Amino acid sequence: MSDRSRLRLAVLQLLVLSLVGTLFGRLWYLQVLAGDRYERIAADNGRGTIAEPATRGRILDDLGRPLVTNRTSLVVSVSVSKADLDREKDKIPAVLKRLGALIKVSPALLKEQVTPCLTKAEQAAEERKKRKNGEKYVKPSTCNNGSPLQPVPVATDVPADVAYRILEHREDFPGVEAKAVAVRAYPQKSLAAHVFGYLGRISAEEVGKGAYRTGYDPSDLVGRGGIEEVYDRDLKGVSGLQTVSVNRLGRVTGVVDTREASPGNDLVLSLDMGVQQAAERALADWMAYARSKPPDTRGRLSPAPSGAAVVVDVKTGRIVALASNPTFDPARFGTPIPTAEFEARFGEQAGEPLVSRAVQGRFAPGSTFKLVSTAAAVQAGWAPLGGTFNCPGALKVGNSSKSNFEGRGEGRISLYTTLVKSCDTVYYQFAIDEWFRDNALVQQKKKPIENLQTMARAFGFGKRTGIDLPDERAGVIMDRDTRRKTWEENKAQYCKDAENPKYSAYVRAISRENCAEGFNYRLGDEANHYVGQGEVLVTPLQMAMAYAALANGGTLYEPRIAKAVVGPTGKLVRNIAPKVVGRVPVNAETMAYMRNALAAVPTEGTAKAAFAGFPFGQLAIAGKTGTAEVVGKQNTSWFASYGPVADPRYAVVVMVEQAGQGGQIAAPAVRQIWDGIYGLEGHRAAYPGGQPPAGLPRFYSDGNVKPPVAPASPVALGAFPEALPEQRRRGAFA
């Protein structure tokens, strides 16, 4: 080897040794001298998660038609961490101002939406701080309940040019993204909105508790107020989850792991879109007619502010239609709603459209309650089926006189005619007999029998039906024990109101009486309750289930509106069936007698005018009108019915608040619904032949859904069969 080669080798060896020495020196510095510093920096880095919502399952009617589904929407989301809010106080308002102008949302609301929600402790501290500075703390109308890494949707259905503007000018919109995502769609607009409910963001208090104990993320949208809420776990699917690395500034630096989302299950209802449309249309038509009527004899107009309609299959307890008016657009709940807008759209001044009058509304039922009164009076012995009863125009009850409608008397009549003509004074006498008997028992320190209240509860009144919808109300059936408990709870307020100079002399006098004797169950109370007035309050759903029990021979169901859960691949997950919860304690003879009388109400009784010209030869129905008086308001209009008379299949009930007589508003609305079900009087048939589908819709792996494979055979309708071919030709599934 030459001297030059040896020199080059020596230089190379020296260079390698120098580099190795430098490397070891640097490692020693990092691990020993600077170890604590870099350990602190590493500790400032961490991981976070970003949820990707699963595609929510569809809600379908009994023939498989889509009622609630999903669609693609351009959604603008904002991702701003608390660190960003604290660190970039001066820059963020400008970004939100630019974004707000673009998507037409106020910058103040945008900031509320993206600001992380305060814990209770943080909220209390903020309130104290504001008070100390002489300021008032105002709780935000909305806030970001999810992970600070989770983008917060602030606008849906944005125009494409807006989305492109955001994407092309990212420097003007840091933390803002626009992309196509799946959102809830309502092909039938507001149809059955109270049945479905809507979607809303889960709250911090709900995550990990109750129904949301497992499987929920703070950023999830969950069902509120309807089927979406009750079957949320079935519909929601499993969210995708992206685990990301985050630096100490709260910014994402990389993706660590990804879990794909799994779509939710579909939900098939027993509700039929055609019958629901007929019910909602009839309700809206006759509410509008009530408002158009001239003033009554006292100069009062009918505001008809709300109403409800229920159609139930009496043989199965399944709900076929459930309508409430006023209604709402569930699509509006795609993004947070400011408090002021919420009040304007859904508050008291707007008629509280989120309240389902069918399930949550409580109303005096008037004479439709004579279903209960008649059964109770027969059971007690006051009303033998073969007897006759005096029906004067008025009857003295205690110290007051109570009258029939318009003071009309009928002379001596049978119980049959009493039901057909709706004679109140006959029922007042039943009430007198029952009250004196029970009062004598109370004076003897014995338990009162209270046939009326016992029978009412046996028919399902005074308690929830158990329908698979949230927030159902139980109604009120007042008795002696309930009256005393109510008085004990409210005595202090009664006594306080009695001395309040702001109230009128009349109100103070009533309050004084309630203060001193409000625990008494009076004769007048019993008389009112026997005709469905006073403190008897029921829901339209309860009334429908009670008439269904009469129609089917006494079986009381816990109703269901959902029919089956079906997986994303079309495989049946489970069936959902109504439950039998009892038998009405009325013997077969009394049942038959009552059904016979109610069959005459539309042809010769209080609903005769409403059903004039109706094709009873094709479809005979039975029913009862109700006109419930409400202090300071117009009468509540009711009609409860079932049919066909020979072999009942459906019960149909309509209630319209402050609309007038039952025979003038509710009864013709019920007639229109029957027309829609069977295709009578020029209407298209929702159920040609009257039968609901026998099975479930057919599901296919490509997502398509078709009606059940074969229609059910027609029910026996007496004279109706010759019309069946025409009904079949019209069809129900266009």
Features:
Penicillin-binding protein 2a (Domain 2), seven-stranded mixed sheet, 734 residues, five-stranded antiparallel sheet
Give a description of the structure:
The protein is 36% helix and 19% strand. Strands 2, 3, 4, 5, 10, 18 and 19 form a seven-stranded mixed β-sheet that branches. A five-stranded antiparallel β-sheet has the order 12-11-23-22-21, with helices on both faces. A hairpin with a 7-residue loop joins strand 21 and strand 22. It has 734 residues and is an alpha+beta fold. The protein is built from 23 helices and 25 strands. Among the domains are: 48-269, Alpha-Beta Complex (Penicillin-binding protein 2a (Domain 2)); 480-516, no CATH class.
Describe this structure in a few short sentences.
This protein is of the alpha+beta class and 734 residues long. It contains 23 helices and 25 strands. Among the domains are: 48-269, Penicillin-binding protein 2a (Domain 2) (Alpha-Beta Complex); 480-516, no CATH class.
